[in-house]
Amino acid sequence: MQNITRPLALFLLVWATSVIAEGQIPSPSHEIAYPTGWQSWSTIAVSHRTDNKTIRVILGNEVAVKAARMGNTNPWPDGAILGKVVWKDTQLDTWNAATVPGNFVHAEFMFKNSKEYVQSYGWGWARWVGLEKKAFNKGAQVCTSCHTPVKDRDWVFTDPAIFPK
Amino acid sequence: MQNITRPLALFLLVWATSVIAEGQIPSPSHEIAYPTGWQSWSTIAVSHRTDNKTIRVILGNEVAVKAARMGNTNPWPDGAILGKVVWKDTQLDTWNAATVPGNFVHAEFMFKNSKEYVQSYGWGWARWVGLEKKAFNKGAQVCTSCHTPVKDRDWVFTDPAIFPK
To answer: What CATH number corresponds to the domain at position A61?
Structure first.
């Protein structure tokens, strides 16, 4: 009987853990809560990087997309959230001159609030790494040091892509 | 008086034309109506092509995005619309190893309806070119000949990117 019980218990443990992980809200990153629903946000732009071999989409919440479409981006309005979803750049089997998203790297976000985040140039900076959505907590200065080249563009690299009406 | 009237008339002509063009619904492509609202659809994937120097986002209507997230893509369900938005690949001034959307090239769409479009492999194929959204009407075979490498994948190149919940 014990021969059956132990594998069954192990199976149930794994199953229950995966169910709980699926429904779990990730821990905050730099004290910022994980933004639910970002997976269905509209697109603001895309980008491709040869230095770290990644391909990306830049999404926005409603405030950010409205601002992007109207060109109201320097500064971005309070309430705007920009999301950058990053995958490893991977050759497409069926079209060799194309690259597409491979493994998921991370999703990172900028939360505009010129009062709350005055210490970090008007933005809250957050990142969740990997499929397990591990909160990045090494400090916003890791983010802002990389974004310094665009400090005169309200700290944002992205130019909204043209979306004809 | 005539010196003032002619420039004024010219200005009004240009202005009125642009206003009319802005509100105009584009002509059908391959007898398919322009899908309004695609600019706010959710992202399914992105791609980067070195052969024609373009960068793209692949969007979907609600039926398509739901199917993509559930892996229900061979075949895609009737009612799914996939949109591919194409820009010229352009180096980013503020990060030289990155490329981003430059000039808008076209937006093209696949409309899944296994009964209506039985002659073209279950899909309606449509494209609107440039900022003027000029309807492409050279025949669906122009589209399907390029998509032949993926005929066993319901004629779709795109693998939905991973969007962790």
So the answer is: 3.50.70.20
